[in-house]
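To fix ideas, we reproduce below a protein record of this kind.
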Amino acid sequence: MSNSLNPISDLTYRGYDGPLASPEFRWWVIARMTIRKASKVNSLRWAAVLSAWYYVMMIAVLFFLQAIGNAQPAAQQFYQQYLQRMVWKDQFVYGFSYAQHLILIVSLVLGAGAIANDNRANALLVYLSKPCTRWDYVLGKWVGVFTPIFTVIAVPTICFYLYGVFSFKDSGFISQDPWLLPKMMSVLLISASLHTSLILAVSSLFKQGTIAGAVYSGAYFFTFFFTGLLSILWTNPHGAHSGLMRTLLYCSIDGIQIGMAKAMLVPSGTLAFGINIPGRNRVPLPIPSVAPILIVVFGITVVCLGVIWSRVRAVEVVG
């Protein structure tokens, strides 16, 4: 082979004057790779589909009652009464609340090993030795985890909202709360941000994604069972209620997000699927105030981001 064809001696590439990619979006390369890896995990796909189960069941119930009402005039009155007592924002709160366990799975699949596995492989030394700053790495990982989480919880919500607009506009779907969709989207954005910041903060503390996932799951379910017990005691009409119990009712990873949704949407307290049980004698859970719970949520998010920032640094291991 002649020297002119030898890639080692051929130095004509040094005269390249074509377009160069901008270094401004280095973080997007990291985010894109994080999303691409996660999209290949089957458990993530199933969790994403199952997270919409409440909205799917709600649509099925409405479709079934409408079909029965159209087929049997005697059932039409029941169907109209059902729609009249329906509080649509309550259904969005239920849909968001019942998806929390599945969003936990999505968060674990996406974020448990996002930084922990890089710590194990000493990949931060490689990342940060290239023209990639700590800001690029943290932002890329955060966006790479946030985007799928937000998509998973936002798509079912938007689909159910559009279904309600086109099917029940004359039944008060829009008139009950014209700002329902912007409020709900704000809840979902804040929720996805909190989930992302929490799981990445935990991931940055460990060198194994499985350990980070186990720690996050343990914290999630420990606080879940604690607040669940308090909720049972609170809804007991014969129970003793205190100011401390009221404060602790939403002190869990899922609880603080459900409390935020209630504070921003202010549900009326109707039962799931719009069911009406005459003579129900239970004390409803209180709705938190908007300002305090948002301050807590943003405070936790900022602390988590601070933890991530402090843990992401290039450390050379000398053997």
The first helix runs from residue 26 to 39.
